[in-house]
Design a protein that fits this description.
zinc, 4 strands, alpha+beta, 10 helices, 309 residues, 6% strand, four-stranded mixed beta sheet
Length: 309
């Protein structure tokens, strides 16, 4: 899909490299499972089922988990109006629009491609942001769709999910497999499977987090250039980040699993080593980038015209 969101070749390179490395990891992981479990059909069926579910139903899964509901123009005319304007400026198909009845101010985009995408905002976000700030957030989310990084993150996370499922399967097999049927060889195989799966999960986790942090910076940049108002996006970031910090932790735990898809993370802030495992760059990094763009634009009020592949 081509759009007027500014292209980001560094993001494209990062996505390609990440998928290539994860692909190699995936091939090695499946080969190891086949050798250890001696069942090619079982491994292939499980892998295909998990990947297919993530790719085809990622939007429905995310909406269900976050209590999101597709809304029509009659229900939220102003929200639809902003999305319509941005899609017209960006020259891209309009995604489905959804609203989640949550006080946590946030937004996310999901879907396997531009023709099957959903942009969802929470009622907490709608209550807190001014129209221009909301436009910046929605432009950020639409840029994820235009850059195709939503689909890449969805597929990339498949390997980690599969590895996690294998670890759980092996663990419960040891617990409930029946003492009479277990021998030293079986225990050794299960132990190796768990070890390989945990290693694969850790490696895929680090690779996905590194890509996720960069794609957020790319989305901020593309949104700021499209709207021509980076200061409004910066204001939205500051407001949302501060308001999330005041929401009780127990109310954010459900959202934590979807941090990588959110405009700002529900959890995961930190310094030093903790930043290596964060799905988002720090607020300071994002505001610094938007400040540079604002200076370059000279507070211009017109949108960007760069095209994206």
């Amino acid at each position: 899909m081509r759009s007027r969101f500014q292209s980001d070749r560094r993001l494209t390179v990062r996505m390609t490299v990440t998928m290539f490395l994860l692909g190699l990891l995936y091939v090695g992981f499946v080969a190891a499972l086949v050798v250890l479990l001696k069942s090619l059909v079982l491994v292939v069926v499980i892998a295909a089922a998990v990947l297919g579910a993530q790719y085809w139903f990622s939007d429905r899964i995310a909406l269900y988990a976050m209590h999101g509901k597709i809304v029509e123009r009659e229900e939220y005319p102003e929200l639809h109006g902003v999305v319509d304007r941005l899609c017209a400026v960006a020259d891209m198909p309009k995604p489905l629009v959804a609203v989640s009845n949550m006080d946590m101010p946030n937004a996310f985009a999901t879907g396997r491609n531009a023709d099957h995408a959903v942009v969802c905002v929470t009622t907490g976000l709608l209550r807190r942001l001014e129209p221009a700030e909301l436009e910046g957030v929605l432009a950020h989310e639409l840029s994820h769709v235009a850059h195709r990084d939503v689909a890449v993150i969805t597929v990339a996370s498949f390997l980690g999910v599969l590895a996690g499922l294998v670890v759980r399967f092996a663990f419960y097999s040891q617990l409930f497999g029946g003492r009479g049927r277990r021998d030293q060889n079986t225990l050794a195989v299960l132990g190796i499977v768990m070890g390989v799966s945990m290693a694969v999960y850790a490696l895929s986790f680090v690779l996905i987090r590194a890509l996720s942090r960069y794609r957020e910076l790319a989305a901020d940049r593309a949104a700021a250039l499209l709207t021509g108002r980076p200061s409004e996006l910066a204001a939205a970031l500051t407001k949302v980040d501060g308001d999330i910090a005041r929401i009780p932790s127990q109310d954010l735990r459900t959202a934590q699993a979807f941090n990588a898809f959110y405009f700002t993370p529900a959890f995961g802030k930190g310094a030093g080593l903790a930043r290596l495992f964060s799905t988002h760059p720090s607020l300071e990094q994002r505001l610094e980038q938007l400040g540079r763009i604002s200076a370059e634009l000279g507070e211009a009020g017109t949108g960007g015209t760069g095209r994206a592949d």
